[in-house]
Amino acid sequence: MKYIYIKTWGCQMNEYDSSMIANLLEKEKKYLLTSLIEKANILILNTCSIREKAQEKLFHQLGRWRKIKNKNPEIIIAVGGCVAVQEGKNIFKRANYVDIIFGTQTLHKLPKMISEIEKNKKHTIDISFPKLEKFKYASKPIKTKYTEMVSIMEGCNKHCSFCIVPYTRGHELSRPCNDILFEISSLAKQGVREINLLGQNVNAYKSLTFDGRICSFSKLIRLVAKIDGIDRIRFITSHPVEFTDDIIEVYKDTPKLVSFLHLPVQSGSNKILKSMKRLYTVEDYKLIVKKLTIVRPNIQISSDFIVGFPGESEQDFQQTMNLIKDINFDMSFSFIYSRRPKTPASKMKDNIQIEEKKKRLYILQNRINMQTMLWSRKMFGSTQSILVEGVSNKNIMELFGRTENNRIVTFKGSPKMIGKFVNLKINKIHTHSLKGTLI
Ligand code: SAH
Ligand code: F3S
């Protein structure tokens, strides 16, 4: 038996890919996943290149693994994910002790690549984009939790001017809806109660049903909602451009779809949105939220923001702050703009001082934190349905679970409740977590 250790950076998509890698290798019956790096024979790094100095971070990490390999030359090192696609063979040049380079769409080739290395091949690389092939090999679901992610589409065609994803994950491709429904039904039979539909751009989803009709994203949600045992549905990430009325309709008649939506807006300035190539205006965004609030008055919206995009003036930034107040966003993610290779924005003149960018980020995050706290406070004394996920990390006498709006709640209960929905009265509030008692 050989032990594999996987280190994952980045988004939920990468987490999902890493769990596919683990399933795939364990299926071979020769490999076992370990969380102890000292025990591992194969080290796998699943990388992310969305921001920061991704390459530097990669080579730092590889430098640490090199020391492990120096002590034990038998160890196999594999690098995958977005930086692997971006850098390709260059990784071998700078770190010749790396054995395998695989891409975001070729992780299913890992068993073959590992055995080539075991047969004394020096290096092996495959960062091609075979269409959805990985799902044929690796989608067999293995239940690990009561809430599971299911990938419904891969890649992105939007080409926002700042974003590297279309280059590292490829074109938008939707998985056949029958495969998705089969996978979710099988998870439901194993006890999964909540599904998070995953994709870079889920509302661009499109495939055919078994009888040849078009299955849009809204149709897919309705079909998932029909599966026995699945009582809560989330999705991430959707894009304002394809947030069409048929999706808003689903909120009207599908209570299993949570009243919480992550809808990245990036900026509150139309000038910046245009230069980001987001293809919508602030007014379009507000209209979507307005329509949603009509069908779901209690819906909460979260978002992603970029500050310091090339050309963002103080006034543009103020417009983002105004939008934050207007929409009353709940907990959100925000980043300083980071120049990414190959992207159109990387050629724009970056005229804002780093101190100014940091200041803007600080102001924005303070405001979001305050609003998040206010949303949480509103929940004081309310009854919330939570899916109990397990024993709390902080206190083994307590259980924890999540509310519809993604708050972790801890409470005293019986282990028999794990994997079930319970109703709690919320009686203590922190910004990102809550405490409750059973009712
Ligand atoms: N598909 C999603 C975004 C995926 S990337 C969407 O529709 O928006 C996740 C987030 O990272 C983005 O929403 C953006 O806020 C941030 N991001 C992406 N590229 C970035 C860059 N070059 N600099 C800073 N933040 C970036
Ligand atoms: Fe990136 Fe824009 Fe697609 S942020 S993932 S190019 S929608």
From TrEMBL:
Annotated TRAM domain residues: 377-439
Subcellular location: Cytoplasm
PANTHER family (UniProt xref): CDK5 REGULATORY SUBUNIT-ASSOCIATED PROTEIN 1, MITOCHONDRIAL TRNA METHYLTHIOTRANSFERASE CDK5RAP1
Residues in MTTase N-terminal domain copies: 2-119
CC per GO annotation: cytosol
Cofactor(s) listed in the protein's UniProt record: [4Fe-4S] cluster
This protein's name: tRNA-2-methylthio-N(6)-dimethylallyladenosine synthase
Pfam families linked: Radical_SAM (PF04055), TRAM (PF01938), UPF0004 (PF00919)
Record's catalysed reaction(s): N(6)-dimethylallyladenosine(37) in tRNA + (sulfur carrier)-SH + AH2 + 2 S-adenosyl-L-methionine = 2-methylsulfanyl-N(6)-dimethylallyladenosine(37) in tRNA + (sulfur carrier)-H + 5'-deoxyadenosine + L-methionine + A + S-adenosyl-L-homocysteine + 2 H(+); 2-thio-N(6)-dimethylallyladenosine(37) in tRNA + S-adenosyl-L-methionine = 2-methylsulfanyl-N(6)-dimethylallyladenosine(37) in tRNA + S-adenosyl-L-homocysteine + H(+); N(6)-dimethylallyladenosine(37) in tRNA + (sulfur carrier)-SH + AH2 + S-adenosyl-L-methionine = 2-thio-N(6)-dimethylallyladenosine(37) in tRNA + (sulfur carrier)-H + 5'-deoxyadenosine + L-methionine + A + H(+)
Any GO molecular function: 4 iron, 4 sulfur cluster binding
Tree of life domain: Bacteria
Chief place where the protein resides: cytoplasm
InterPro entries given in the database record: Elp3/MiaA/NifB-like_rSAM, Methylthiotransferase, Methylthiotransferase_CS, Methylthiotransferase_N, Methylthiotransferase_N_sf, MiaB_methiolase, rSAM, rSAM_horseshoe
Key word Zinc-finger present: no
Note accompanying the cofactor annotation: Binds 2 [4Fe-4S] clusters. One cluster is coordinated with 3 cysteines and an exchangeable S-adenosyl-L-methionine.
Binding site for [4Fe-4S] cluster 1: 11, 48, 82
Major enzyme class: transferase
Domain Radical SAM core residue range list: 142-374
Organism for this UniProt entry: Buchnera aphidicola str. Ua
Binding-site positions, [4Fe-4S] cluster 2: 156, 160, 163
UniProt entry keywords in alphabetical sequence: 4Fe-4S, Cytoplasm, Iron, Iron-sulfur, Metal-binding, S-adenosyl-L-methionine, Transferase, tRNA processing
Function: Catalyzes the methylthiolation of N6-(dimethylallyl)adenosine (i(6)A), leading to the formation of 2-methylthio-N6-(dimethylallyl)adenosine (ms(2)i(6)A) at position 37 in tRNAs that read codons beginning with uridine.
Quaternary organization: Monomer.
Record-stated family: Belongs to the methylthiotransferase family. MiaB subfamily.
E.C. no: 2.8.4.3
